[in-house]
Amino acid sequence: MSDIEKLVNDFNDCVQNADFEGAFELLKGNPEQFDKKLQSKVVGESLKKTTADRLLLSYIDSVGFGVRQLSDSLHRLEKLLKIRPGALVLAKVWGLGEVKRIDYFYRKITVDFKQKRGHQYAYDVAAETLEFPGEDHILVLGRIDPVRVETMLKENQGLFVKEVLKSFGDMPLVKLEKTIVENGFIKKDEWKNFWEKARTTLKQDKLVEVPVKKTDPIILKQSVEDYGQNWVIALTHETDPRRILALVREFAAEGKFKDATEEVKEKITDRVQFALTAAKMTDDALYARLAVLASDLNLSRPTKSEMLEYIWSRHRYLKAMTELPARDVSALLKFLACDDERREKLYGVLTELPYVAVAEVINQFKDDPKLRETVGALMKQPKAPATLVTLLTGKYDQFADWKELPQLIVILMHAIALGEGRQGGETLRMQNIIRRLFSDINWIKSIFAKLDDAKKAMLFERFQASIAWDPSTHHTTVIRMTNLEPSLASHLIKDDKKRKLERETSFRSYAEKKAEYQKLINTDMPANVKRIEFAKSFGDLSENAEYQYAKDEQRQLMQKQSIMQAELDEVKAVDFSFATTDEVMPGVTVTIKLATEEKQYVILGEWDNDIDKGIISSKTRLALAMMGRKVGDKIKVPGIDGSDVDAEIVAISGLSDEIIEWMKVPVGLSI
To answer: Do 117 and 176 have their domain in common?
Structure first.
């Protein structure tokens, strides 16, 4: 008699003797053998003959014998058998709960959760979603031994985090915070202080690996690593490139690499090379970190030039820098700028880099004359890069001896321009930093101390004219400036001048902005709603990346809708063709004389701009320099290098027929 035949005979004996426990144990231990010999449906019918218990019979009927794979049905039945009144269960959405009732007739299980009393599950859903935590699970400990948990929270935060990781598995810092806060162990506003204490302890614990990057998981090890043969074997068989990076980094940090045998170094080289190949074309940030590690350890494969060529190509370095933490960005920059040629190449892409990388480049190579020349040239452009403007404005004292830079007043003019209007992405972050600086009375004091009276007045007038700033910040800053320097009060714009700074634009630009708004609310936002509904079908929303992306997009669209609606309400569409020409104002053509040439500009409204036709917005720095002036007035306008140059207004005239035609509402649009 074969082994399979013996198992079937033993199973049949259990059925004849109405021995459910014996029959189920045989099935659990040998699902594949039974699947080959008996049909799943037959197994289910046979199990029903072993018991008269109605609850047990309802469980057997619900797990899909004959519909699902036998192993799947047995697994579901095993889970249901654990569900009994008083049992503690764990749900992803609701946390820890207690089973209160089981209704075998309607096949419903009622569970009391802390935030959801009397929640009901169908058998099938319960078997699919509920878990059964052991007595050492942190949520169970919090229920049966709250004093112990409270002591850990107050006195040993690191140990508490380890218990959380032991219960829920390795997880990134954001998920750890969410798990601890949402389960009621601490309040959200207590998290920062709690984590600072926990992190200090965990950094000293060799069983815990706290990553530099917050999106990487915090790892709880089973035992302290001795970096012996077992470690080498584990590394040799590791296929996760992130794990390879963490293992080799830790090995090197412990000072083990320099004393390792050539055989061990060769195996490390092989695994790092494998990880680099796996990261290629899939994860630029991971590839960058691996490349830096390979370079630091002076591994023979791949060559440094091969890695540099790959990460420099197709702007992969840029994608990496936007995702890496500051410490890794610093290491990557040293790797990328390993020689004079590549360092100059890095200077050439300075405007593309995120703020943290720009600051690090300047910090690392601040004594290089070529870097100073590059930064100086960029800052002398009519519109300087937001990252450089922010860095130089906030930390000007560190660059005061850079002769290549324009005057401080020019940098401040760039900063005011950056603070205007609506920005997005990295530029929005820079704008927020600039706005906070102008709200800081101590920063204003330090800036005023570096300017003479004429430049203070120039700064004040330029800022006062910048009505595109947040109104409360703008008003407060104007008041603070006049309190610091009472003489600036004479430069305050009078009421009749303020009226000329009302927000106005042409019919054309208003119609185009309105069309953009209509597309937003009639096309973009409904499409986003459809994406949200579609993403919901993917399952658990807390773990659903598509849903989270769609919701993030919805928040951005709603914010954009609110901003655009406010702008359409605040900005008026006007006909500029009737403006008077006794002084410069929106709706006139201005001719100015420079040292070697004359230039002509058409000043219209806030949203108007057409370089080919000479149209400039009334909110540009050039237009503001001319506003309110008359023929014969000497003025200073921004030059090519960003510094002010002398000019004279030689003519103010009305608008040409071409410009009047341009201002009309385009065909197909309306206001």
So the answer is: no
Alpha helices in 466-575 (DSSP H): 471-484, 495-500, 507-519, 525-536, 545-570
Claim to verify: residue 478 and residue 508 sit in the same structural domain: no
Supply the pLDDT for residue 278: 95
pLDDT at 496: 46
Q: Residue 212: how many CA atoms within 13 Å on its side-chain side? A: 16
Task: Tell whether 23 and 101 lie within a shared domain.
Answer: no
Contacts of 32 (CB under 8 A, 6+ apart): 71
| pLDDT, position 54 | 93
* 28 residue type, one letter: K
Q: Name the residue range of residue 73's domain.
A: 3-82
Residue 530: its pLDDT value, please?
86
CA distances (Å), origin 40, targets 67, 72, 566: 8, 10, 65
Structural domain total, the chain: 6
Domain presence at residue 376: yes
Round to whole Å and give the CA distance between 3 and 25. 16
Residue 550's contacts (CB-CB under 8 Å, 6 or more residues apart) are 528, 531, 532, 535
Percent pLDDT > 90 in the chain is 61
Task: Please tell me the pTM assigned to this model.
Answer: 0.53
Amino acid 611: pLDDT: 86
User: Which regions in the chain score pLDDT beneath 50?
Assistant: 495-500
Long-range contacts of 220-229 (CB under 8 A, 24+ apart): 220/162, 220/165, 220/166, 220/170, 225/250, 227/251, 227/254, 227/256
Are residues 405 and 499 both part of a single domain? Answer: no
Residue 468 has a pLDDT of 66
Spatial separation of the C-alpha atoms in residues 552 and 319, rounded to whole Å: 21
pLDDT at 467: 64
Query: H helices within 281-407, ranges in order?
Result: 284-296, 304-312, 316-323, 326-336, 340-348, 355-365, 369-379, 386-394
> Which residues have C-beta within 8 Å of that of residue 444, sequence separation ≥ 6?
438, 477, 480, 481, 484
Selection from 273, 360, 272, 372 nearest residue 321 by Cα: 360
Residue range 475-521, pLDDT digits in tens: 889 999 999 999 998 888 654 444 445 689 999 999 999 999 999 99
Q: How far apart are CA 148 and CA 145, in angstroms?
A: 6
What's the CATH code of the domain at 630?
Answer: 3.10.50.30
CA torsion sign for 646, 650, 653, 657 is negative
Cα end-to-end span (Å), the chain: 90
In a domain, 349, yes or no: no
d(CA 284, CA 349): 18
605: Cβ–Cβ under 8 A, 6 or more apart, which residues?
A: 504, 505, 506, 509, 571, 574, 576, 586, 617, 618
CA–CA gap between residue 169 and residue 159 (Å, rounded): 15
